[in-house]
Structures are given as C-alpha cells and as structure tokens.
Amino acid sequence: MGFEVDLPVDEEFDDIMRERLIEPVFQPVVSLVDQRPVGYEAFARGPEGRLRSPAALFAAATEAGRAAELDELCAVLASRAFHDAGMRELALFINFNPDTLSNETEDGVTPAYAEVMGDSNVVVEITEKAVTRRPAGLLDAVGDARKRTARIALDDIGVDPASLAAMPLINPDVIKLDRTIIQNDAADSHVINAVLEDALLRGAQIVAEGVERHEHVDVARSLGATLGQGWLFGRPGPLPTAIRPSDQLLARVGPRPAQRTTPYDVLARTEPVSPTAAAELDAMSAQIENQATQAKDAAILVVNIGDLRYMAVDSLITYAYLNSRGVEVFLVGHGVPFTPGGRVRGIPLAEDDPLRQERTTLLVGSSYGSGVFARRQPGSDAFVAGTCYEWDRVVEATLPLVSRVEQI
C-alpha cells in the first residue's frame, strides 16, 4: 500500500515559484586565445532575502519536493533572457538536473528542456555523479539532447574519481576541470593526463574553472585548456548589452552509436571467438578483474554472470576492494539484487533475458579498455568466447549494460 508524506510548507518559496521570481545571472566562458566569450553559463538567484543564494533556494526546493520543478523554471527563464538579449552567436551553458533531464516522456526530455534546447545554442552541463547514480534514462536523455543539437559538458572533473571513468560513457564535447585543479599547485597528474588523453582522442575541449588570477591562465594553458571561466573574466551578473564574440568555435564530438543489443553481438562482429570451457572462461574473466585491481585511475567494471548462482564466493570482497580504489562495479545477472553489497550496483535480469546465456567482464578506464565476452552453446555447459582490448569497442559493448541500471 502506498502512502503520502506531508512535506513542510515554505510560503516564501511557494511565492517565488508562483510568481516566477527567479533572476537569471550569467558568467562568461572565454577563449584563452583571444580572451573573448564563446558563451555564458546561467545561474539562478532568488529575490532579496532568505532564499537569495542558489544554495538556499535549491535547498528549499528539495525540502518542498519541488527541485525538478525549480530546475525547469530556472532553465526556461535563463534561456528566454539569453534569447531576448540577442546572444544567438554564443553558447548558453546550463546545469541540468539529471533527474529532470531524464524524466521519461514521449519526446525523450521534458517539454521545458525541449524548449530550451530548441531555442538556444545550448551546452548541457551534467556531473559525473549523475552517470554512476542514474545511468538508465540519463544516457538516453543525453542522446536525445544531442539530436536537438545540444552539446554535452561533463562538469566537476577532478573532484570525484568516478569522473574519469564517466567520460567514455558520456563522450562529452566539453570537459570542465574543477577549480581545485587550477588553483592547486599539486594537481593530480593522473587526472590531468587522463583528461588530456581523452580530449585529444575525441576532439573535446577543456574548460578551466576557477580562473581568478592571471597566473591561473598560465596554469590552465599548461593543462591543455583552451577555454576558461572565473572571476578574472567576470562574476555572475546581467548579460552585457554589447559583446564581441570569440573567433574560437566550440567543439562538437560525434555521439556514440546507441546499441540495443548484447555485448557478445557488439564484439563478435570484429573479434575472433572460439569454443571455451567454463573453467577457462572463469580464468579469462578473473584476468580482467585482476587488471582492474591494478588500475592507476578510476574505471568502470561491468560483470555479467548470467545467473546469481554462478557468482564466486569471494567476488563481493574483490568488488569492495575495487570500490576502495575508485572502480565503479556493476554486477549483472538473473537473481542479482539492485544492491548486491557495498557500492556495487546490481542489474537484475528477467528469466527470459538473452543476457542470461552470456558471460561478460568489461573494464573501461579513461583511455583503455579490456573485456572477455562469451555466449553459451545451445544444450551445453561450454561457451564460445573472445577477448577485446580496443578501448572504443569495449566502451560500445559496455553501454547496453550500464544503460539498464535503475536509480537507487
């Protein structure tokens, strides 16, 4: 039996929503080459008083159970202000709530977001946490946003190890380095190298956030950034009445092909396969998991065991260790719970799911990938199996599995 929860009433917040008393403010994102704007990021302010700051405003929305509604209102008001100011040559960077962005509708994204994307040169900003927390729906929404010509930016890179592993799945056009990377003289070289490799591999652009002093510009350039954002270039405020846009164009990375098939079908098209006994397949899969324990940066490990009864006794201990090293683990199989243990994410399979006849172990890092894939031979305990060490192909095979994950 369902039940309703009475949320506390905040009359001041209710007035703000009813009267649409949100003030959009904008901060420039500039080219580090010519120091002129390529676009503006939108922020929201409430009216003067207790709910003026974004933190207080969104905290009140969460308390009232209206965070998604506030997020849509902010996006629409910012888009309309941007349009009215005649900024069509510039990009509008908007932070999208992943829960709102991926709400299921016939058109993919919510109507409010569809309006925003259809009327502006939009860059959708999402955080890496959204990818690991709610990949199902979000990846579809990202694909839909790209169909509407929006670009995708992955924000807060460097804050959480999962950010590096999330990059191949999102395939962003823009990578935003967190301010702590720019302002910290001892920035993690693994993070920087992984971001640079990913950007160079796919043609993405890097934005350095938190540029507050001239020396930060030099740091940003040394880290491969071509765009910058921070108080040195302007604080959040009204849009200028006159502006000279940068000659630098924003990158546009081609989306990954959406796969509605299985990892075996994806990888067997190009990789050789051969008959393999179950014990040999277990050893091959264990080798991939061992590679995960030696990963030097964050990664994603997806393991399809077909059925829970095939999971090794000590697997959860191994996965907990991998979690402690920044590896996000997804476990697939019939009978697998949504929360198998610790931070491991479960992907339960229906009894008639074709994935029950497959075994897959896929490891995806920021610039490397490896995997074992197999399909059970009819009427036998033996498999036909193969391996793949091509990063792009392993990512392609990982997406059909990760996109099944439900929100916890």
Automatic annotation (TrEMBL):
* MF-aspect GO terms: cyclic-guanylate-specific phosphodiesterase activity
Q: Which PROSITE patterns match?
A: EAL
Top-level taxon in the UniProt lineage: Bacteria
Q: Which Pfam families match?
A: EAL
SMART domains per the record? EAL
The record's annotation in CDD domains points to:
EAL (cd01948)
Which residue ranges does the record assign to the EAL domain?
A: 6-250
Q: Which InterPro entries match?
A: Cyclic-di-GMP_PDE-like, EAL_dom, EAL_sf
Question: PANTHER family this protein is in?
Answer: CYCLIC DI-GMP PHOSPHODIESTERASE PDEF (PTHR33121), SIGNALING PROTEIN (PTHR33121:SF76)
Protein known as: EAL domain, c-di-GMP-specific phosphodiesterase class I (Or its enzymatically inactive variant)
